[in-house]
Design brief:
3 domains, 51% helix
Length: 282
Amino acid sequence: SRRSKNLETEGGGGDSGSTHDSSAGLGCCGWLLVLFSLLITLLTFPVSIFMCIKIVQEYERAVIFRLGRIIDKKAKGPGIFFVLPCTDSFVKVDLRTVSFNIPPQEILTKDSVTVSVDGVVYFRVECPVSSVANVSNADSSTRLLAQTTLRNVLGTKNLAELLSDREGISHSMQATLDDATNHWGIKVERVEIKDVKLPQQLQRAMAAEAEASREARAKVIAAEGEMNASRALKEASLIISESPAALQLRYLQTLSHIAAENNSTVIFPLPIELLQQFLQRK
């Protein structure tokens, strides 16, 4: 696999930097020390058996070093494994997903706006051997790299993109972090932007701009309503002028609405035809 090739070309060692198992590269002195450790183990048996047997959990792996070299090119576990008490040492690696918060970072955006941004990162150890052999502290290194990556990625975005495209920024950060931590045996599963804090003056300016935009839209909508209402009234007046009976019906409908309310004023309607006769005499 890709990580095995990286480990073979970059792992610790003396000759070409590749990682060898216990059967290659120990040398005469190394084999003497191993045989001496086996002899001590046999002489002190069964007391030494408690020092040789180790157990790792289902979510853990053990990277075993024999005289400073990683044996078998892979981690042991889960379950029981054996180590030699004098020549072997091991490091436990937790494979569970780890999450940590990125502290708030003061970032200058592309359009020269200073904002405070924090986030959260989820990662896990994918290759235990690389996480032990290629970096001194994988967890701390990933945390520091996440902070610098947050600054670098957000420094190329303007404020509008930062506020509207958080998902795209999260994917970009995840790809950048995953590519950088691949050599360490770390798999970055998810990156999320939690909060973006703007300066108080900028918040007030944006609020005033949004309020002015809403007022402008309200005025436009009100003007359009007035225009549509005037057109409807014009059409209604034309229809009523063509039919006197329609005017009489509208008049009676208005009276019924007035009578439905609790008013102290009583209105006696006069026929429209009577008024028209007076107008014709004049």
